[in-house]
Write a structure and sequence with these properties.
With 306 residues, this protein is an alpha/beta fold. It has one domain: 3-Layer(aba) Sandwich (Rossmann fold), CATH 3.40.50. It has seven helices and eight strands, in the order αβββαβαβαβαβαβα. It has an eight-stranded mixed sheet with strand order 1-2-4-3-5-6-7-8, sandwiched between helices. α5 links the parallel β6 and β7. The radius of gyration is 18 Å and the shape is globular.
Amino acid sequence: MSILSNVHVASAVALGLQRLSAVGLKLALRGKPIPFPECRAEVEEISVPTSIGPARAFVYRPVDHVPDLPVHVNFHGGGYVMRDATVDDPLCRYLAAEAGVVVVNVDYAVAPQHRFPAPPHQAYEVTRWVADHGADHGWDASRLTVGGQSAGGALAAAVARQALERGGPHIALQVIHYAPLDLVTHARDKAAVGTNPLIKPWMADVFDTAYIPDPAMRSDRLASPANTADDADLTGIAPAMVLTCELDRLRGDGEAYARRLRDAGALVTHEDIPGVDHAYEMNDVDTARRTYALIAEHLRRATASA
């Protein structure tokens, strides 16, 4: 067992990564053009009350928006540890402009400050708040979708699961984009097509341990819905769009969950994006544009019929 699987070590490393992330992201983006400059949106910061504490969120509205637009709640990635919702700014602007939706981009609680199950519970409470209070902001939250990339995609799946179990809110579509959906199976045991996958076993040691220190808890349905330990009937869960990446170590997670959703009659589509790895959109704007266009198309379809 790696020393990074020790909760104290993993938590210390996770905290260090949080401190470095803001600087690292600025350096990584320095000199790079802003993706999708043609996709403009009005952005407003709000605070959503939850039992975990206030959740900051950024609301993206299409320029020259009209009242009663559908709402898409987005959760960013980062291994449940990194906290920077602004990394999804290009996606949120694109969806607001091209799908014609209001995007609520959530800066949710992260580990080790807030361990499992706080993040999925808070994600659900934010979504519930949007459904209950959207009309107060001029949104049509009866046409509600959720989604996210990486850990954010897993949180979107957890929101849909809680909505199924709690009788709402109604979710027209869940978008699950290269998500970690099986924390029981260690990353080193997940095959990757690529020779140098982005996700390394040490990352799983740090992120998974900081998030869920007790390995026995990692089989929980809100953490590992793609693992065979979760065999509940998912009939009635929100329709799902599952996106995986050909070279990603987490590809099998998405494939397994897509099969499960298909068996429940809830899979709208499973798209495997060829030739790319986890978090590809950071460096491959062309592929990101094609994928985001596909997501926008499915959001339009789902909210038109909701």
